[in-house]
Write a structure and sequence with these properties.
Layout (H helix, E strand, L loop, with lengths): L2 H23 L11 H4 L1 E8 L8 E10 L5 E9 L6 E10 L7 E7 L2 E10 L5 E5 L6 E5 L6 H13 L13
Antiparallel strand pairs: 1-2, 1-8, 2-3, 3-4, 4-5, 5-6, 6-7, 7-8
């Protein structure tokens, strides 16, 4: 077996073990009842997130989602470099729905064949905010259609996240 295949298998198995462990200790993550993908597309600004490697040094992050003719979604993630805010870092990917009953469970990929869970777990009535989670609770993003979010809306989201067994103390707000 070559090194690349071994690496892919190792990453897959470690993710499976991690998810199996999390599923044994936490109740299943709940998603919103339904997402209208036409209303969901457009620009979203990051309000808060769990810290992770692939966004290290990013501030003022935003995501642009566009429906494709094949039913998938084009994803463009952008951020400004913390050390020089005039420099923009970007990543292009695609997402696809894996639960057509709700459209709230998606997979997203920026580098084939790797993909990750992108679950919409909270959504404003007018699609003014969205909360993206992961079934193992290792990723979390709070997004808004505007660059700032009303504090009462943010606090309501935090309350609902705690009910979903998210550790909200790990959230960072890197746009300040």
């Amino acid at each position: 077996m070559n090194v690349t295949k071994w690496l892919v298998i190792s990453v897959f198995l470690s993710g499976m073990v991690s998810c199996m462990h999390m599923k044994d200790t936490l109740p299943p993550l709940q998603v919103v009842p339904y997402v209208d993908l036409n209303r969901y597309t457009g620009v979203w600004y990051e309000i808060a997130r769990y810290p992770h490697r692939f966004q290290a040094g990013c501030v003022e992050s935003r995501a642009t989602y566009t429906l494709r003719d094949d039913g998938k979604i084009s994803v463009l993630n952008e951020c400004n470099e913390e050390s020089d805010r005039s420099k923009v870092r970007s990543a292009k990917g695609k997402a696809w729905v894996v639960d057509t009953a709700t459209n709230a469970k998606l997979k997203v990929s920026f580098f084939w064949p790797f993909s990750g869970d992108y679950w919409i777990i909270d959504l404003g009535n007018d699609y003014e905010y969205a909360v993206i989670g992961h079934p193992g609770r290792k990723y979390l993003w709070i997004l808004s259609r505007t660059k700032k979010m009303d504090e009462s809306v943010y606090e309501g989201i935090l309350t609902r996240l705690k009910q979903q067994h998210y550790d909200t103390s790990k959230l960072i707000k890197p746009q300040k």
